[in-house]
Amino acid sequence: MTVKKPLVQALQGKSDCQIPLWMMRQAGRYLPEYKKLRAEAGDFLSLCYSPSLAAEVTLQPIRRFDFDAAILFSDILVVPDALGQRVWFVTGEGPKLEPLDQNDFSGLDIGKINSHLAPVFETVSRVKDGLEDNKALIGFCGAPWTVATYMVAGEGTKEQAPARLWAYQDEQAFSRLIDILTEASIIYLKGQIEAGVDVVQIFDSWAGSLAENEREKWCLEPLRKISRAIKEAHPEIPIIGFLRGAPLVYQEMAKIADIEGVGIDTASDIDFARETLSGKKTIQGNLDPLALLAGGDALDEGIDRILEGFGETAFIFNLGHGILPETPIAHVEYLVAKVRAYSKATRGA
Ligand code: CP3
Fold it and tell me: In order of start, what are the domains of the chain with their CATH numbers?
């Protein structure tokens, strides 16, 4: 008999399974064991491209907290790197990318995705070997829009102004870049699925900076294309879409046939999210990472509101955005115990 994975059950629409729990950015700098291994590995991308180290880092939070899912340790910016745009990470500053020539980016080559990212696929196989049968492995990519914001600016920017401006000034060229990234994302996610991931999540962290009609073009349309292509090739693999900063978009996401899960961010209204999505999509979210950092009453109230709001629906407990490096380990332990106790008491699982 195959062992059930609560994350997959929830994404199949079940609301009576154990409430699955994982955290965005769960492998990372709040964990002493990550910091130790990171220091030994040298630069961040070498860690992403070292299957043995990346697999170890992927499994660290599962060993410590018994989460229901591991998320592949990699980064959304390995895709531009694989396309031929040089990427590096500066400690304390974040990602840097070699400037993209907006008049000629014909050098970006999707033909190299599979060979360049072979070490990431190897990480997936290794993690699968080390993961218990009731735990799911999540693969991911950045959504084309979010990845494009870094490619155009050459670094993270506050309001993603360089990419938004280029999209207005030369819509055709920007559209070509989004198409390349859509194609690259499909290849990359298929590679992860073929290597063994159980679920994929598409991170559109900067969806919120776009005007509504632009968001339709640069976020929703690519999401529909990517999810359609993945579903055609791998109908059994659930897909979670996370468009941060644009709660009204849930009405549109509820209609996308090929996604099963919708990640909701910290600022989302719980009642609105439930009314819009429940019965149509599995909801994932949305504890404020700062409430987790703060602990105490803020943490208790945050957890209670989410469990009361979503506990009776198909739901995955998560944060509203990535865990912060300063977060005390004890607060994460407290969160896990509290969600587990609620799940046992209300669902018997
Ligand atoms: O545990 C996991 O979630 C898996 C691995 C993962 C990383 N990045 C590792 C990482 C995932 C899923 C991501 C996604 C990612 N990367 C996003 C989308 C999600 C989000 O948080 O909005 C974005 C926008 C990026 C790009 C990126 N990578 C930035 C802006 C930075 C610098 C800021 C930061 O958090 O340090 C990174 C670096 C990065 N990616 C680190 C980790 C663990 C820290 C690097 C280090 O160890 O020095």
Answer: 6-347 (3.20.20.210)
List the single range of 217-226, 246-255, 307-316 with lowest mean pLDDT.
Answer: 246-255
Cα-based distances in Å from 25 to 69, 152, 251? 12, 24, 26
Q: Considering only CA atoms, which residue is closest to atom 9 of ligand 1?
A: 75
Q: Are the CB atoms for 27 and 60 separated by under 8 Å?
A: yes
Whole-angstrom CA distances from 63 to 33, 68, 154, 184 are 11, 11, 36, 32
Q: Would you state the torsion angle of the CA atoms of residues 123, 125, 130, 136, taken in this order, to the nearest 10 degrees?
A: 100
Contact 337, 7 (CB under 8 A): no
Residues with CB under 6 A from ligand 1: 24-29, 38, 44, 71, 73, 75-77, 89, 91, 94-95, 140, 142, 146, 156, 203, 205, 322
- pLDDT tens track for 152-163: 999 999 999 999
C-alpha 75 to ligand 1 mean position (Å)? 6
Closest CA to 95 of 23, 152, 54: 152
Q: What is the dihedral of CA 88, 92, 93, 96, to 10 degrees?
A: 0
pTM above 0.90, yes or no: yes
Closest-lying ligand 1 atom to the alpha carbon of residue 38: 47
Torsion of CA 7, 258, 163, 248, to 10 degrees: -80
Dist CA 332 CA 175 (whole Å):
41
Q: What is the DSSP letter of 325?
A: T
